[in-house]
Amino acid sequence: MKWMIIILIIMLFISIIRLYRMKRDIDSLNRSLRYIQENNTNQQLTTATFYKDICDLTNTINMILEKSAQIRIANEKSNREFHQAITNISHDLRTPLTSALGYVQMVQSDEISEEKKAEYLERIEYRLKVLSNLTDSLLEYSRIIEDQVPIEFERVNVNNLLRDSVSVFYDRFIEQDYKVNVHIPDEVLYTSGNQALFERIFMNVIQNALRYGTQVFEVSLNAQSSTLAFKNRIADPEGIDVDQILDRFYTADNSRNNKSLGLGLAIVKELVAKMGGTTNAHIDDDFLSIEIQLVGIKG
Asked: What band does 230 get if pLDDT is binned at 50, 70 and 90?
């Protein structure tokens, strides 16, 4: 009986020590977690405990902290982009509006000739059209990201549609002294999607090449990889952030006099995604390449 009591006392003593150490480790974790919360740091919890349950708890909390940090960083980036977007939109919409108002004041003057008034009215009309186009682009992008654009899937003759889209801009390519290279198979090829959306996608990519590119435009269709590639030479490859070129409101023109909200390629990315594809951009030497991966192209 005496030895039994001694053993129980020893076991109780060991249990008390274990409980004390566990409480100490938990208190340490609690202090560290409170510090991380109050100081909004990316620091993670560490522990020197020998207890597996506390180690598992620490790892679980660290995973939650890492996910929370990722969400916080993404939110901060999104907020920065939002504020920059508001600034850019305000500037881009205000520029043609301010210019038009200036010409309105000149037209109202009694000191200018009728000929000048007619010229100023044409300029006012042009500025207002620019403003209307910018507003339409913004509203269209808003409808797309809010899933307000209905998509009826159909069988689309993608190579003929691509040829037609390039031919629509033939005169503009000639006017801007472009060399156009088209590599599209003669075989009739089909993909699943929406023809009207594909027309808008091709138009946006080509217009982007005409607006920001120079000298050379190439388009190719690879049926085996179901990939469309649009390439255009650019004058200043260093001035383009290829990681952001598909983002909304991105424009490489720092002067922001290009009459664009930078939504053309962002709309392309969203529309392609809605039809199950992906869009990527990269720069090789002095060529910008926009690659569209479709779900599948078949003969």
From this structure: very high
